[in-house]
Target: Glutamine--fructose-6-phosphate aminotransferase [isomerizing]
Amino acid sequence: EKGTYPHYMLKEMDEQPGVVRKIIQAYEQDEELVIEQPILDAITASDRIYIIAAGTSYHAGLVGKQYFEKMAGIPVEVHISSEFGYNMPLLSEKPLFIFITQSGETADSRQVLVKIKDLGYPTLTITNVQGSTLSREADHTLLLHAGPEIAVASTKAYVAQVAVLAIAAYVTGKATGKAIDFDLKQELAIAANGIQSIVDSKDVMEEIAADYLKTARNAFFIGRNLDFCLSMEGALKLKEISYIQAEGFAGGELKHGTIALIEEGTPVFALVTQEQVALGIRGNVKEVVARGANACIIAMEGLEEDGDTLIIPRVHTLLTPLVAVVPLQLISYYAALHRDCDVDKPRNLAKSVTVE
Ligand code: F6R
Model:
């Protein structure tokens, strides 16, 4: 029930710190993060992971790729489920297929699962719904523990997906001796606190939405590296609930075409959470501002500069999507409200897409 909340989406965004804390508990044993042995065996046995997902779950998969590659040394490909069948990639010798799906019912993803099972390859579903179709039909399941997500726009499930992917990759890296040296449990707890402080300052995001999006026809989200993965999720959230045409793309791609669309007043949301690319994205901000863009700079503490619009709490560089997604969700939410859109049930959309 949404209780005193005007919308499920708002309630679900508020639940996000709790979701991260719940995930830490659910995957903790004797103070250590763990995943079930058969799942760990399936991951360590694979020479390449193929992540299959749609929409927001696909965006979480893009982050998950970096986690498995950096924390566990396993190469990963991420595929949009509806496209996978048309041009199946050449598979490695020991592939593992990971399906990321909040509902566990997405037909596009299931269709790939059926095909992969026919071929006899191992499968793992990461889902929020125990007993869902993709959970039942895969060899293994990792649960998101996010609680029911009712609003059509996915929020807490994305945060949960990123957290669970981080845990799976981290535990794998520990088991294979390829781990990078950090305490994920502690860093996730710090991220939960960071999310908390963002949801506790909603008025700032409401103001940003009013300033940048009240009358906007379109909007851009730019970032590099993990911030690029996140920019696509920011754009999707804005599109689906506010109906503002939005695009997320890599900062370096601006000059290859998109910059032609920048006009006087075009809102551009620039993400600055990755130290090694901060300079590059700041350069992109200058380029769009020089062409009249209304730039909203969202920077992580420690990377901020005078004139930035929003500073978010500092977290481990790999975990920034977990925290930086939250202001983007809130900005979309308030943009939709300011434009009198039906936040929980946007036009033309269903919560789970059970047709191909
Ligand atoms: C976006 C959204 C959709 C879903 C997509 C996949 O907010 O809700 O893009 O992420 O339909 O759904 P699941 O994760 O249930 O497979």
About this structure: The pocket of fructose -6-phosphate is lined by residues 54-57, 101-103, 106, 109, 152-154, 236, 240, 352-353 (CB under 6 Å).
